Known about the structure:
Blueprint: H1 6-11, E1 25-27, H2 39-42, E2 48-50, E3 70-72, E4 92-94, E5 117-119, H3 131-138, E6 144-145, E7 148-149, H4 152-160, H5 162-203, H6 227-247, H7 254-278, E8 297-298, E9 304-309, E10 314-319, E11 330-334, E12 338-343, E13 346-351, E14 362-365, E15 372-377, H8 391-395, H9 402-412, H10 429-432
Parallel strand pairs: 1-2, 2-3, 3-4, 4-5, 5-6
Antiparallel strand pairs: 6-7, 8-13, 9-10, 10-15, 11-12, 12-13, 14-15
Amino acid sequence: MGRITEDLIRRNAEHNDCVIFSLEELSLHQQEIERLEHIDKWCRDLKILYLQNNLIGKIENVSKLKKLEYLNLALNNIEKIENLEGCEGLKKLDLTVNFIGELSSIKTLQHNIHLKELFLMGNPCADFDGYRQFVVATLQQLKWLDGKEIERSERIQALQNFPVIEQQIGEQEKAYCLKRAKDKEEAQRNLREEEENEAKGRNYPGFEGQSPFSVENKDHIQAPEGQEGKCNEKKFKGSEDDLEFWNKPSLFTPESRLETLRHMEKQRKDQEKLSEKKKKVKPPRILITKDGKALNVNDPKLDFSLKDDEKHNQIILDLAVYRYMDTSLIDVDVQPTYVRVTVKGKPFQLVLPAEVKPDSSSARRSQTTGHLVICMPKVDGVITRWRQTSKSGESTLDSSREPANQRHKQVEKLEVDPSKHSFPDVAHIVQEKKHRPRRIQSEPKITANEEDPDFEDNPEVPPLI
């Protein structure tokens, strides 16, 4: 069962930087709280307090909340309105779906002069004859009751009929209190019986609360079964008990709500025990076999691509690591035949198609995608500078293969001597092309070739310039 603790309040005070003494709004709904405590000491400045859908049976320890304006106690086990006189600033009170049968207890709210809204729907007292008229006449400061505005004529009529209505309400209250006392006795008797049955079941395990010497159980005395059979039997028995519990008719009382919660809590604990038994320790992931063979593993389930860069003679692994993951959660291990990347404790291992140099490898994160890019230079087939062969070797080659060897030498030579490589001198480009006066050079005269048989020398035709 839940209790109001300092840690619980701090967890629900994130909007106030987890500072509780200056809290003005606090929400503790659906926490299975059974008792109101500590709030009036730790949170004196509260203005709004949400406590709906819990198991609170009594209004207490809130009288020091002088600034409290709205109190929500809907869906609880409250049977009486009390201890709210000290909440001087209370304007709205929600007690929807509780177990308030003493309608006369609303007289304690007459001291809350600022109270304007009250919700009592879903309570046993809301079914009393004259309920609304009694509340309207008793709390004259109210403006709204159960979400409906109180008109002036309605209040005048309620005040006129108040003596008769008050007598009717008193009689109905007595009848309800007698019925409620019987329900409490029956609930306590059922609770004692359940506790006795559980005690018998603990004394005679395996016989479900019955005596092992009874006639009905003689057929059940057999050899012990396997562990799996016992688990299945317990599971089947638990499902039967659960079905019987939910099909059993019960009254809507505070005790039935507590019983339902205890049953659900017990069911949850049994389920946790079964799951713990079923849990098996996973064997460690095998990354390398006994004979030294590396395996391909992708536990993080990440997309990847492996590229063979022949131009730079290296292998590139692109691993799609999550974009916003911290790099400290990634560990890279490059080996000659495989690469291993550990992402948040989960291994990713890939066998490489060629042997690489671990010392020359590099790993970096992409600034745009967040991917991990690992560049691994290859060991074999490294392109080196061409070396001139010896003269004895050259003499054995045929003369016909010499041009091909020269072309091969030119292709394989990757580095060029910087002293033999000339770059254009940009600074002297203009000086080299100085403007010089253009001279008309006399072109050689074209003389006729006398040996040509078709040539005819005409003196009237001017010479060509």
